[in-house]
Amino acid sequence: MSLTKSERRQRIHYRVRKTVSGTTQQPRLSVFRSNKEIYAQIIDDVNGVTLVAASSREKGVTKGTKIETASAVGKLVAERALKAGVSNITFDRSGYLYHGRVKSLAEGAREAGLKF
User: Fold this and answer.
1) Which residues pair with 38 in a beta bridge?
2) Which of 18, 21, 40, 102 has the fewest Cβ atoms nearer than 10 Å?
3) Mean pLDDT in the chain?
4) Which residues on neighbouring strands pair with residue 92, listed in sequence order?
């Protein structure tokens, strides 16, 4: 039985989510990557609330290569998180490899001041 790419990613995501969850003190930074865009949200899993979100579809995000855009989204979500009083997070790569756009988003968030 061979899995499609998305089914494989979903399985990995479920496996990771068994251990990674966001609390009020240390929420979870979740990443979703489509072929064109990238989305990030900071989630408090205890209360089931999205605290902050950012995506490459927003007007303020600079356009360039996909990796540059992902870095800009990481910085934007970090700025919004710091305004909301969140500085420590856990990173949820959502089953994607920590490589390319996902890594760029994480590094952009770190540069802007998030700790994880």
Assistant:
1) 33
2) 18
3) 94
4) 30
